[in-house]
Amino acid sequence: MKEFFVEEFSSQESYRRFIKYMLSHSQFFSVVYFRYRENEPMKKRTKLLYEKLKKFKEYSIMTSEWPGTITMDDDHIYKLVYYRADMECFDWLIQVPGLYEWDYPYAPMDLCFYRDGYCWFSLTAHEQTACLYTDREEEIRKLEALGADLSFSEDNVSVEYCDFLRKEK
User: Which CA distances in Å does 137 have to 2, 79, 105, 127?
Assistant: First the structure.
């Protein structure tokens, strides 16, 4: 498997095309809902997304670990939610205006996409790190043609498999 870094998009249109491509070529996507404490209300924009995506929800878990992130934080609440990748989600996902905007308090954190039981796009927004994992050269060319700025990182990287997704196969 090859790893590619994904840079922030130069235009809103190329970001929109990227999200559309990822939705149409993935089985699931995930985000993390963060709160400082149990009784803290969800932020207004985040709550709107949560409500609009609810019908696509497949699985959720309280965790301190998700693709690209392991927190050392036992005090805060992290809810990882997996959604079915459906084009009906597109208009809601692009309400978040850029890759690195997927962060608290303005949106759920760390949008990721999955296929074949593994995370093929991971985002750690607060570190401004986005990675794509694929061996499909034609896919790289298509994404670059859509406006994705991809730079090769390394060969033979291990990808993050998800037990929930493995059960779905």
Answer: 10, 34, 36, 27
Per-residue model confidence as pLDDT tens digits over 12-48: 999 999 999 999 999 999 999 999 988 888 899 999 9
Residue 168 has pLDDT above 50, yes or no: no
Nearest to 102 by CA among 119, 127, 83: 127
The C-alpha angle with vertex 107 and arms to 47 and 33, in degrees rounded to 5, equals: 65
> Which ranges in the chain belong to alpha helices (H)?
12-24, 44-53, 90-93, 137-145, 163-168
| Pair 116, 88: CB distance under 8 Å | no
Residue 165 pLDDT: 59
Q: How confident is the model at residue 135 (pLDDT cuts 50, 70, 90)?
A: very high
Q: Supply angle C-alpha 117, 157, 97, rounded to 5.
A: 65
